[in-house]
């Protein structure tokens, strides 16, 4: 019978070792769980704070927009970003253009009094303070071409742009945005 008793003692020892290992694993997992719960709480708080901040910002923006809308006169409509570029006509103010187009004109008009030559799209992009990634340069080139097509700028054969206003006539003079 000694051998049966020895086998039982061996099994008891193995079970004791397994229980101790599982207790250590549970303690380790409890620490991991606690850290994960802390991170989750931080994420929830951050999201709630962001939602509150955005709601407050939206309320302020709405109030400012409503105040600006009341102050605006009917005779001078504000340009909308992405709005159509009207053909240039004598006496038409630059303020009818969207802000991006006004900035491009401004960069080129700064060069005119100094007698400096035309600028390429990349140079205009740099002077606007934008990154010179191909997407930004192409966006500026597209806007400058649209201004040239509508008579607000002159596009040189080299692809550079300079200030020069001229009336434009044609069936599609004001069709694209």
- Number of distinct helices: 4
Helix content range of the residues, please?
55-70%
SS-derived structural category: mainly alpha
Shape, per Cα inertia axes? elongated
Measured on Cα atoms, how large is the radius of gyration? 35 Å
The helix-strand sequence is: HHHHEE
Mean pLDDT: 82
Distance N to C terminus:
98 Å
Q: What characteristics describe this protein?
A:
Arc Repressor Mutant, subunit A; two-stranded antiparallel ribbon; mainly alpha; 2 domains; 177 residues; 60% helix; disordered C terminus; 4 helices
Q: Can you describe this structure in just a few lines?
A:
The protein has 177 residues and is mostly helical. It is built from 4 helices and 2 strands; from the N terminus they run H-H-H-H-E-E.
List the helices and strands and how they pair.
Layout: H1 2-71, H2 99-111, H3 121-127, H4 134-149, E1 153-155, E2 161-163
Antiparallel strand pairs: 1-2
Task: Describe, in plain words, how this protein is organized in 3D.
By secondary structure, the chain is mainly alpha-helical. Residues 171-176 have low confidence and may be disordered. The longest helix has 70 residues, at 2-71. It has helices spanning 2-71, 99-111, 121-127, 134-149; strands at 153-155, 161-163. Helix 2 (99-111) packs across helix 4 (134-149) and helix 3 crosses helix 4 (134-149). The protein is built from four helices and two strands. It folds into two domains: 1-72; 94-163, Orthogonal Bundle (Arc Repressor Mutant, subunit A).
């Amino acid at each position: 019978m000694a051998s049966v008793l020895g086998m039982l003692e061996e099994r008891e020892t193995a079970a004791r070792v397994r229980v101790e290992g599982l207790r250590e694993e549970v303690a380790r997992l409890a620490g991991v769980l606690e850290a994960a719960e802390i991170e989750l709480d931080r994420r929830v708080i951050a999201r709630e704070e962001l939602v509150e901040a955005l709601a407050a910002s939206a309320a302020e923006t709405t109030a400012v927009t409503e105040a600006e809308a009341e102050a605006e006169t009917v005779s001078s409509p504000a340009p909308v970003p992405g709005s159509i570029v009207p053909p240039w006509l004598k006496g038409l103010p630059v303020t009818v253009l969207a802000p991006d187009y006004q900035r491009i004109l401004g960069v080129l008009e700064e060069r005119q009094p100094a007698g400096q030559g035309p600028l390429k799209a990349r140079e205009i992009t740099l002077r606007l303070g934008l990154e010179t990634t191909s997407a930004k340069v192409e966006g500026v080139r597209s806007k400058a071409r649209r201004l040239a097509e509508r008579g607000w700028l002159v596009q040189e054969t080299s692809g550079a742009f300079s200030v020069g206003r001229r009336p434009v006539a044609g069936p599609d003079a004001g069709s694209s945005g």
